[in-house]
Amino acid sequence: MSDHILEQYKRDGFVIIRNLLTENEVQAVQGLRKRIDAEAEDNGFQDFIKGKTRYEFEKIESEEYGVRSTLRAVKNPWWNEEVFREVAGSEKILDIVEKLIGPTIFYHSSKLFFKSARGGRRKPWHQDWAYWDTMNQRQVTVWMAIDEATRENGCIEVIPGSHKNGLIKHHHAEDFMIDEGVIDPDLIVYAIMEPGDVLFFDVMTLHASAANHSDKGRLCCIIDYDSEPKPENSKHGTDTPLRNKEGEVGSLAFS
Ligand SMILES: O=C(O)CCC(=O)C(=O)O
Fold first, then answer.
1. b vs e for 123-161, b when ≥16 Cβ sit within 10 Å of the residue's Cβ?
2. Position 248 pLDDT exceeds 60
3. CB of 128 closer than 6 A to ligand 1?
4. Which atom of ligand 1 is nearest to the CA of 222?
5. Are 218 and 224 within 8 A, CB to CB?
6. Which atom of ligand 1 lies closest to the CA of 113?
7. Contact indicator for 245, 237 with CB cutoff of 8 Å
């Protein structure tokens, strides 16, 4: 990884690496979504849990498409979906994470997230650290585009440099979010991405995504990595590092 990428990450609180995933990796995750939707169809798209992994579905209603059900999110697919683990936990991803947060890397949490065409909801402005502020602050989120992410289908939006300004107060409203009046629209950078592009962003970076009013769904893999194990009072993360301080690959913390 070039120094330029690290410098940009430190300065802006995010960086996009283009074409990091192979076509095979992208297709494998698209296949995973299709398999989950097919399985869910058989049980009427009811949410279900397998071990530590939770599968959530939603009903989308639109004039054009009527009512249809589809996957919304798989929470912590790391534990139960090998394809996800292989793509989101690959050596090339960990190599970049290591440059950004240091040589000791713990798994924290993960999500396979689908924003449906014509109805996928928006995610209001927030900082991830607000969700788990007992954690240390060296955490990176890896956001992998599996479908293209555009302004029309609700790509991630970020405020460059916002990771340096500390935590903003969050409240529960439409979602867990900040008062969005503080966002200057002129500062927003839209993370427009092709399948296979990967966005890395800091746990304090302000980000959001718009609703999807387009004809195209938006599938992504999201995974958070930490430089330290979870504190005792946190339900997040693992105690076993994926890589240790010497930079060797440790025993993977799979169940
Ligand atoms: O992928 C998205 O649209 C939003 C994801 C996000 O901000 C989050 O999970 O914290």
1. bbbbbbbbebeebeeebbbbbbbbbbbbebbbbbbbbbe
2. no
3. yes
4. 9
5. no
6. 1
7. no
Q: How confident is the model over 180-189, as pLDDT tens digits?
A: 999 999 999 9
For ligand 1, whether the C-beta of 85 sits within 6 Å is: no
Q: Is 113 near ligand 1, meaning CB less than 6 Å away?
A: yes
Question: Which residue's alpha carbon is at the smallest distance from atom 10 of ligand 1?
Answer: 128
pTM over 0.85: yes
The reply to whether ligand 1 has any atom less than 6 angstroms from the CB of 209 is: yes
Q: Is the pLDDT of residue 166 over 50?
A: yes
The ranges assigned to domains in the chain are 3-226
Q: How many residues belong to the chain?
A: 255
* ∠ Cα 219 149 55 (to 5°): 20
Distance CA 227, CA 245 (A): 10
Domain 3-226 coded CATH 2.60.120.620: yes
Choose among 243, 253, 157, 150: nearest CA to 201.
157
Span 3-8, average pLDDT: 89
Of the chain, the percentage scoring pLDDT greater than 90 comes to 69
Tell me which residue of 237, 217, 218 sits closest to 229, measured CA to CA.
237
* pLDDT one-digit tens code per residue, 55-102: 999 888 776 667 888 899 999 999 999 999 999 999 999 999 999 999
222 lines ligand 1 (CB under 6 A): yes
